[in-house]
Amino acid sequence: MDPFDDLLRGVRADGVRFGRTELSPPWTLRFDDEASLTMLTPLRGEALLTHGGDEKPVQVGDTVIARGPSPIVVTDKPGAAPDDRAVLLVGSYQLRGKVAQRLLGVLPPVLVVPCAEDCTPLLAFLDSHVAAAPSGQAQDRLLDWLVVCTLRTWFDQPEVVAPGWLHALSDDAIGPVLRAMHTAPDKPWTLVTLAREAGVSRTTLAHRFGKLVGEPPLTYLTDWRMTLAADLLTESAATIATVARQVGYADAFGFSAAFKRFHGMSPSEYRDHVAVCSTA
């Protein structure tokens, strides 16, 4: 497990607003439902994406991912003939939880990813599944894989300004440290044990980690633990003591104090707050 895998685990469709749409020129689609993420891929025909006054062409096989709540508008390409029918796959997500918010925080408002060879088989498979069965869990998981594949392709583009930790994953010393933190957040990590994972001294680790990631190792670890803990509190009925152990705290008291410093409320208050908001 690494930071990227952990971020993408928040991408999970839940059978909402997904389908295959056939359109004849002139056509316009407006997405203003404030979804966390909106995904669109032309299977046939070209389109024009408008967001915030900017226009971007979208070719067959390209995938658009828009981060809410700003609306986007997609239209047929100017000059399209009346018989130039377009076929689009469209899906939307309401991402919940602190891990999902970390993902949204590193994405631009709109990204257009050129047709990627790795994702093409998923597109064809998803298209055939939609035609056969308009809804279902299998279809939702295919959509998840397509979005994850698209995001991985986008992050791999050299011109993309990715977060520091993503570049740090390829570093011989810092990459193993990041993976260790995310694979086992419950371990009692210290600068000494993390330096052992990196195979360098504590001083070298602290300097190199700060340079590549932008913050000290233990600060990054605390941020990740508190983010993960927030989701564990709301995704299960686990006790606060259990959640504390899952994120590396030996007792609930120390965990609760750290959680309140980070989130501004105690674990029980946070759990109640999220429960109230989800039913409002």
UniProtKB/TrEMBL annotation:
Protein's organism: Actinocrispum wychmicini
PANTHER family: HTH-TYPE TRANSCRIPTIONAL ACTIVATOR RHAS, HTH-TYPE TRANSCRIPTIONAL ACTIVATOR RHAS-RELATED
Keywords, alphabetical: DNA-binding, Transcription, Transcription regulation
Residue ranges the record marks as coiled coil: none
Name used for this protein in its record: AraC-like DNA-binding protein
InterPro entries assigned to the protein according to its UniProt record, in alphabetical order: AraC_lig (IPR032783), AraC_XylS_family_regulators (IPR050204), Homeodomain-like_sf (IPR009057), HTH_AraC (IPR018060), HTH_AraC-typ_CS (IPR018062), Tscrpt_reg_AraC-type_HTH (IPR020449)
Transmembrane segments: none
Pfam family, one: Cupin_6
HTH araC/xylS-type domain mapped to chain residues: 175-273
Domain of life: Bacteria
GO molecular function: DNA-binding transcription factor activity; sequence-specific DNA binding
Claim: DNA-binding is one of the keywords in the record: yes
